[in-house]
Design goal:
Blueprint lengths: L14 E12 L2 E9 L9 E7 L5 E8 L9 E10 L2 E9 L11 E7 L25 E11 L2 E10 L2 E9 L6 E8 L6 E8 L2 E7 L4 E9 L2 E12 L7 E7 L5 E7 L14 E2 L1 E2 L3 E5 L5 E5 L7 E12 L4 E6 L2 E9 L7 E8 L7 E6 L4 E5 L14 E4 L8 E9 L2 E6 L3 E6 L9 E6 L4 E11 L4 E3 L1
Parallel strand pairs: 1-18, 4-34
Antiparallel strand pairs: 1-2, 2-3, 3-4, 5-6, 6-7, 8-9, 9-10, 10-11, 12-13, 13-14, 14-15, 16-17, 17-19, 17-20, 20-21, 22-33, 23-32, 24-29, 24-33, 25-26, 25-32, 26-27, 27-28, 29-30, 30-31
Family: Belongs to the glycosyl hydrolase 32 family.
EC number: 3.2.1.26
Enzyme class: hydrolase
């Protein structure tokens, strides 16, 4: 058995996967595409993999959705989105080739259409957008279309680089086929923006982007064809290349705003000694909402609770500098802690997962109110010398007068995904080696820390199968 393959996080059946692409729901069925190399567990020959689900938890893999049209000069079908228009779905994506069609200076935006949700035809009008639309405006690394409907037609945003800064560029169409450039939707401070997408909340909008580091968001309002009056500039997930990148989102038929993100495999490092026939996973699908202060709230989709198995419950646990062992051994579980802020105000609280009895391996989730941080300390996560062991650290949410902190930790074979008060999120990969690296322990910097409640659920494997 492959001890590192996740059991309830989405993975491709085999070989490489990266960015989630074009999710949508139609007639009760969820569709998810993803960047996929069908022949090797490494990046290259990028297709769109395709899977369907009734609940965003259990998935059936279909034959891949799109392949590069080699005869038309395509080498890769890069990331993009889907547009549901009646019973027809249009996929938009970035088409990449060789030479003049390279990703930096020769990208094009293409479309494919489908009505049976299994086959996708690329019309002869491709490409539907080219860099010539911008006139004298110089744009590099132009990619990852995201489309939504407005009162006067359709809007598309694309990521890229202008004047050495990452930007989101915006376009308009009446018919999804002819597009006009409307300007720079927002210009960032980072050197690149990838995978821009947005959610609207009444007159508010939240723009997500991936700047070759932790995924960020801006909450503000749309005025014409620009994002203005930014209220919050936040972080979607602090994992970045070590755990969470290239997010995308959609609104389902119940009106929920759902975001997907890719969990990269780079933390394996060089010369990973285990030969695995797969690479990459997706983070748990998250329901997104907007708080009054402009911050995002993010919670795993409730359907994940259907995978909860045996439950272990503890109340008013006193934690000190010696590790308190829960007695639970698992590498695939959910842990929910409620912590009184006053009880740990002057110290830190550490929850160790993947902990071995000998103490040589453990991954530590560290809550530090004094420093206002939550971190995943990987320094002792593995005895393998070349896997990544840097810490993932994020800022805690604003307390807003609440007495308790809610900390949710999802552990899945090689994934640690953390939610603090449904706002701060961290995701990363770890690769323990010892057979008994499955303990769950708590400790504190002093002898007076009390954890109000701890619940641990063994998580059953999701049903992820091939058609």
């Amino acid at each position: 058995m492959d001890r590192y393959r996740p059991r309830y996080h989405f993975t491709a059946p085999r070989n490489w996967m990266n960015d989630p692409n074009g999710p949508f729901q139609l007639n009760g069925e969820y569709h998810l595409f993803y960047q996929h190399n069908p022949s090797k567990p490494e990046w290259g020959d990028i297709h769109w993999g395709h899977a369907i689900s009734k609940d965003l938890v259990n998935w059936t893999h279909l034959p891949y959705g799109m392949a590069p049209s080699y005869e038309l000069g395509e080498s890769h079908c890069f990331s993009g989105c889907s547009v549901v228009d009646g019973e027809e779905v249009t996929l938009f994506y970035t088409s990449i080739g060789e030479g003049e069609r390279n990703a930096a200076t020769g990208a094009q935006q293409w479309m494919a259409r489908g009505t049976d949700m299994r086959t996708w035809q690329k019309p002869a009008i491709n490409p539907v957008l080219t860099l010539e639309l911008h006139g004298d405006l110089q744009i590099r690394d132009w990619r990852d279309p995201y489309v939504w409907k407005t009162e006067d037609g359709w809007r598309m945003i694309l990521g890229g680089i202008h004047e050495e800064k990452g930007c989101a560029f915006i376009y308009h169409s009446d018919n999804l086929e002819q597009w006009s450039f409307k300007g720079i939707f927002y210009k960032g401070e980072e050197w690149i923006w990838e995978c821009p997408h947005l959610f609207r909340f009444g007159d508010k909008a939240v723009l997500f982007y991936s700047p070759s580091g932790p995924v960020r968001y801006l909450s503000g309002t749309i005025n014409g064809d620009q994002l203005v009056d930014v209220q919050q500039h936040g972080t979607v997930d602090f994992g970045g290349w070590e755990g969470y990148y290239a997010s995308t989102g959609f609104v389902d038929e119940a009106g929920r705003r759902i975001v997907h993100g890719w969990i990269p495999e780079g933390s394996r490092g060089e010369e990973f000694p285990v030969n695995l026939d797969w690479a990459g996973a997706l983070a748990l699908p998250r329901v997104v909402d907007l708080k009054p202060n402009g911050a995002l709230s993010m919670t795993p989709v409730p359907a994940l609770e259907s995978l909860r198995g045996e439950n272990y419950s503890f109340a008013n646990v006193t934690v000190n500098q010696s590790a308190w062992n829960t007695g639970v051994g698992s590498t695939s579980f959910e842990c929910l802690l409620e912590i009184d802020r006053q009880a740990i105000a002057s110290t830190d609280l550490t929850i160790s997962v993947f902990a071995s009895a000998c103490g040589k391996e453990h991954t530590d989730v560290v809550l530090d109110l004094a420093a206002n941080t939550i971190s995943i300390d990987r320094s002792n996560s593995s005895l393998l010398p070349k896997v990544h062991k840097t810490a993932i650290t994020g800022e805690l949410p604003v307390a807003d007068g609440t007495d308790f902190i809610k900390l949710r930790i999802f552990v899945d074979q090689s994934i640690v995904e953390v939610f603090v008060d449904d706002e701060t999120c961290l995701t990363t990969r770890v690769y323990p080696t010892l057979e008994d690296s499955n303990g769950i322990q708590l400790r504190s910097g002093n002898d007076k820390s009390v954890v109000s409640s701890i619940q641990i659920w063994e998580m059953k494997a999701a049903d992820i199968r091939e058609e």
